[in-house]
Design brief:
Blueprint lengths: L5 H6 L13 E2 L10 H13 L9 H21 L6 E4 L2 H15 L5 E5 L8 H4 L7 E5 L22 E7 L11 H10 L3 E5 L11 H4 L3 E5 L9 E5 L1 H6 L23 H6 L1 H13 L7 H29 L3 E3 L11 E6 L3 H8 L4 E2 L1 E3 L4 H6 L8 E5 L6 H14 L1
Parallel strand pairs: 1-11, 3-4, 3-5, 5-6, 6-7
Antiparallel strand pairs: 2-8, 7-8, 9-10, 10-13, 12-13
Helix pairs in contact: 2-10, 3-10, 3-11, 10-11, 11-14
Length: 409
């Protein structure tokens, strides 16, 4: 595999040619990444030429519907799932809320579910509230010092056969350790439980092969994956058709409409095909133009991850060597996403503000990760400084960040 061509990559993102952003290194990508040019093009074209009710029998409407269908078809192919197993919603938090309403009626009396305290609140709070309906909620806890989620600790929670759903993250938005999803799914399935994986903090680093992971539900956010502000949700057919319909009753026979109770955002769904365009151009540029969609996704995923790992390790080494910060999560770049949270004597928001005059765009606070931070003994008012990047980040920007940290820590 060749290395990621960073010059080509950055040329695909309009933000890097904007005068107002020159000299600013963006390290808050876990909150939302820059959108790629392909998404810009599709979104503006839709609003300019196709902003009509889709699926009607006239040209503009037919094109609008076709672009919406294209987004679903192409993203599904990249992830190795059927087209109608991909649903869109306004956000991942909204999507999990709708799912929880479906599970509330689907879970049998006396059932239990498992949640973690490594999750962002989107894949924790809605499930925990099922306790109000009599569902037993079991917490798969993380290690207080490291934030590690031990798969071996899941097995005892499943031993009595009552657990019907296991919810966990592909990786946390503050711990960032990449969990062995396929292995965890296998443990859950062997015990008769289905799984819901929050991929919001993983997907920006390469769309996963969801079929290979084996999970029943996989969720991520397009706006953190170079796209528009949509939540994208994979629900495998066996589970999706068994859950009660949450959409209009007359849409109940269409899998991708069953968990979309409100009218979808036509333009943003259509623009999501730009994410697939971006993967295609990256694959073609790096010699994978003849591959099928799933293979292109795997190639680009590996290019992204390899580049990020190379850039991440020097930052982890720098932070690990300091005695005035606590680095959350693994110290090996291969084991984690490039989302780096640290605890210092100064509040996280104050440190982020101190970095801004140095041209570093980072964030401070709790990032809705109140459960993992609390489980690791972090003062939630104090918060953490979080520095997050993706594959379009350069080694120069990492060096810029380290120099700025030297100034403010």
């Amino acid at each position: 595999m060749t290395d990621l061509d960073l010059s080509f990559t950055r040329s695909q993102f309009p933000a890097f040619s904007q005068a107002s952003l020159q000299g600013q290194a963006f390290f808050e990508n876990a909150g939302g990444s820059y959108p790629c040019q392909q998404v810009f093009d599709r979104l503006t074209r839709f609003y300019r030429e196709r902003k009509v009710q889709p699926y009607a029998p006239y040209a503009a409407s037919e094109l609008a519907g076709a672009e919406m269908d294209e987004a679903r078809t192409r993203l599904a192919a990249i992830m190795g799932v059927a087209t109608d197993e991909v649903s869109f919603g306004p956000s991942t938090s909204a999507n999990t809320y709708v799912l929880a309403q479906a599970f509330r009626k689907w879970l049998p009396k006396g059932a239990a579910i498992v949640v973690t305290d490594q999750d962002h609140e989107a894949n924790s709070g809605v499930w925990r509230r099922l306790a109000d309906e009599g569902v037993e909620v079991r917490v798969w806890g993380i290690d207080r010092d490291t934030g590690h989620l031990d798969p071996a600790a899941l097995t005892p929670l499943l031993a009595d056969g009552k657990v019907k759903l296991v919810c966990f993250p592909h990786c946390s938005n503050v711990v960032a350790e990449i969990n062995p999803v396929a292995a965890i799914v296998a443990i859950a399935h062997a015990a008769g439980a289905v799984t819901c994986v929050d991929g919001v903090s993983y997907a920006p680093h390469g769309l996963p092969d969801v079929d290979a992971l084996g999970t029943d539900i996989y969720l991520f956010s397009a706006y953190k994956t170079y796209g528009p502000h949509q939540g994208i949700m994979v629900i495998r057919r066996a589970l999706g058709e068994s859950l009660p319909n949450q959409g209009h009753y007359f849409n109940g026979d269409t899998l991708y409409k069953r968990f979309t109770p409100a009218g979808p955002d036509h333009a943003q769904i259509a623009a999501s095909a730009g994410m697939a365009d971006y993967i295609d151009v990256q694959a073609a540029h790096h010699g994978g133009g003849a591959l099928d969609a799933r293979e292109k996704g795997a190639l680009v995923h590996d290019l992204m991850r390899a580049h990020e790992v190379r850039l991440l390790q020097p930052l982890l080494d720098y932070l690990s060597a300091r005695n005035d910060v606590r680095l959350l999560g693994p110290r090996r770049a291969e084991d984690r996403a490039p989302t780096v949270a640290v605890v210092c004597d100064r509040p996280g928001e104050a440190l982020a503000a101190a970095l801004a005059p140095h041209g570093i765009m980072a964030g401070g606070g709790d990032f809705y990760a109140v459960r993992p931070l609390g489980a690791m003994g972090v003062d939630l008012v104090h918060g953490v400084l979080r520095m997050s990047f993706v594959h379009y980040t350069s080694a120069h920007e990492i060096a810029h960040l380290i120099r700025a940290l030297d100034q403010v820590l």
